[in-house]
Design goal:
Bound molecules: zinc ion
Shape: rod-shaped
Order of helices and strands: HEE
Oligomer: single chain
Radius of gyration: 25 Å
Helix content: 40-55%
Strand order of the largest sheet: 1-2
Number of helices: 1
Strand content: 5-15%
């Protein structure tokens, strides 16, 4: 009479396969989310620099220097101030926006 169900060896093989897949996929998923956050932060910096450009080019604006506080750009030159997905804060210097969380991270685009 054949026993219904799985043997212990079969169950151990299935569990081992699941563990191997998790060991491969979880670090890859974490890398992807981290690189997405870095890309989002870079995009936010570019957006703020563009809004600062509009601020400086605005003929109604008597101040031709860059904006003193990035918060002053909203809501006229940007609808809503972007926030860093890593929790950093943005600052502007000579037209370039930097993030306090990763001030030196590469900006590839
Ligand atoms: Zn950031």
């Amino acid at each position: 009479m054949r026993n219904k169900g799985f043997t212990l060896v079969e169950l151990m093989v299935v569990v081992a396969i699941i563990i191997i897949l998790a060991a491969i996929l979880i670090p890859r998923y974490l890398d992807v989310t981290e690189s997405a956050k870095t890309a989002k932060c870079s995009a936010n910096q570019k957006t703020l620099e563009a809004a600062n450009g509009m601020y400086m080019a605005d003929p109604l604006n008597t101040d031709t220097e860059e904006v003193a506080d990035l918060a002053n750009l909203a809501p006229t030159y940007i609808v809503q101030l972007p926030t860093c997905p890593k929790g950093g804060t943005y600052d502007i210097d000579n037209g370039y926006v930097t993030c306090s969380y990763t001030p030196t991270h590469d900006r590839n685009f």
